[in-house]
């Protein structure tokens, strides 16, 4: 035990630390510390052991202990994968505003699409008795849900769905169909009736896969075959999107479905290397909205995700504790340019 105590020295003790030292689960520790252990039929011996470890490690003196004495913590947490575009930035900003309007204290942390950082962030929020964790664009939302369930914390998935908790996501399929149809119509106006290119995202990513399905279905409905090399999914990176586009000739890329404003930056860089005639023939649209990008001359439209509605729905779930089994789809708004 002395060795374990030294391991914990220098950092705030969490229920996961206590669970490891007591050789039990985090949910058992949470039950003992919040006084509900008898309802779970946890033995007095284990309860005493957990209490002794918590006191020895200074757990009762930290912020968690004071929160346990209150009926509610009023803390709501959110993890976001990136701050590098308006979409995630707007989600974080609106989440904070709605939380404060409801008398809640919001905590937002960026996890850089790193699974280990997501888990670390979830554990920290749980240790402070967050009443709800909204996992936005998480790489492994079901793992985070399992952590929350063990501690009795509500979890909600936003932007990307999971299987273990309620999910609130955009109607990516419907939005992709509308945008694809718009780009094809604008290409037809200049005499091009071939297949578009799909640029950006990852094949394993849920949103990319669903948007790509909508993209392909519209082509199929119009009798247009999409060659495999028209689907360029190098990831969410401006540099990778630009490199992928460099493999195409101007004649090959007349119409482009851009799968995020991050990828759009790479497409615009690539287009700067075209001659004037090629740039004038180029038509593209982007899934996600940026007011400045909407002014670009070759941009024919953008899909704007309804962030306000998504968050309102998430907070409604938080209030009602309803748990629909299927993801809740929030329609997008097509913004022709």
TrEMBL record:
InterPro entries: HTH_LacI (IPR000843), Lambda_DNA-bd_dom_sf (IPR010982), Peripla_BP_I (IPR028082), SBP_2_dom (IPR025997)
Gene Ontology terms, MF aspect: DNA-binding transcription factor activity; transcription cis-regulatory region binding
PROSITE patterns tied to this protein: HTH_LACI_2
Keyword Transcription in annotation: yes
Pfam families reported in the protein's UniProt record: LacI (PF00356), Peripla_BP_4 (PF13407)
Domain of life: Bacteria
Cited SMART domains: HTH_LACI (SM00354)
Record-annotated HTH lacI-type domain positions: 13-70
Keywords carried by this UniProt record: DNA-binding, Repressor, Transcription, Transcription regulation
Protein name: LacI family DNA-binding transcriptional regulator
Source organism (scientific name): Paracoccus subflavus
